[in-house]
Write a structure and sequence with these properties.
Blueprint: H1 3-35, E1 46-48, E2 62-64, E3 66-67, E4 71-72, E5 80-86, E6 93-102, H2 105-111, H3 120-128, H4 131-134, H5 158-163, H6 176-182, H7 198-237, E7 240-252, E8 259-271
Keywords: Membrane, Transmembrane, Transmembrane helix
Length: about 270
């Protein structure tokens, strides 16, 4: 694998791993906040219920806020509703395009979009009803965002933009010469550390046993046949004919004395 292939593989892995890692960390923080039922200072997830009938009560009970679709902040942390400006007359409500309000500011931010910031009239509406904006006279600060060269719809939720790390395009430039000059190696070496592994030994022995069983099953019958043939061949060569002599006594009578003459009679006998 050459330099460019290895670098492309590393870049592809980074594109996949970095957003996933960030998403998991943010999800962990959100679940910790929701699990501990932290009360927002804006009173958007829980509200205090003052027990007027008992002024000597040592604690103040709370109740969860309810948003769209009867979503309770006591059960879910991502409950939201449309963000609005409420004027002096409570019946007069001005919605803010793309913005949400919910249990916590972070969840409201994730559920919102940037639509309002692409619209000049919506920005002017925020300037009109925000005290801090009225103190700033420089109108260039509040110029709407440009819709040119954007790779995502303007109604994309901020949560999705966070998952993509707010990255619209990866600009990658590879230069092996610069890489080599910065990391100029004088020598290259590596260490291969082998550790005792019981499972590896067990599997090796089992594999060796299986291989030996297969080899012996094939070679043992052949070895037995060879041994039998050698035994039969040696058995035939040991058939030796040996001569055995028997002694027979024949009495002969003479006038003067008796003499016994020994006659040797050969007798052939085969020993096996």
């Amino acid at each position: 694998m050459n330099f460019h292939q290895r670098l492309n593989l590393t870049i592809d892995q980074s594109k996949l791993n970095v957003p996933t890692t960030l998403t998991h960390l943010l999800y962990l923080i959100r679940m910790i906040n929701n699990g501990n039922a932290f009360i927002s200072t804006y009173g958007t997830n829980f509200e205090y219920i003052h027990p007027w009938e008992d002024i000597y009560n040592t604690y103040t009970p709370t109740q969860a806020m309810i948003y769209d679709n009867n979503c309770s902040c006591g059960l879910y942390s991502n409950c939201t509703t449309q963000a609005t400006f409420i004027l002096t007359n409570p019946s007069e409500i001005i919605p803010i395009k793309g913005l949400k309000i919910g249990c916590t500011p972070s969840e409201s931010f994730r559920a919102s979009t940037l639509e309002c910031f692409y619209n000049e009239s919506c920005i002017n509406l925020i300037k009109q009803y925000t005290i801090k904006a009225n103190r700033i006279n420089n109108t260039s600060v509040f110029q709407p965002l440009s819709t040119k060269n954007i790779s995502f719809p303007i109604n994309t939720s901020i949560a999705k933009l966070i998952d993509n790390l707010f990255i619209t395009d990866w600009n990658i430039k590879m230069n092996y010469t610069s890489y080599f000059e910065q990391c100029f190696p004088l020598s290259c070496s590596y260490n291969n550390i082998q550790r005792f592994n019981v499972f590896h030994i067990v599997f090796t022995l089992l594999g060796l046993q299986g291989g030996l069983a297969l080899v012996l099953e094939w070679i043992c019958p052949k070895i037995i046949r060879i041994i039998v043939k050698i035994y039969e061949y040696r058995k035939k060569r040991r058939n030796v004919v040996q001569s055995v002599f028997t002694v027979e006594t024949i009495p002969i009578e003479n006038i003067d004395n008796s003499v016994s003459i020994l006659e040797l009679t050969p007798m052939n006998e085969t020993f096996q």
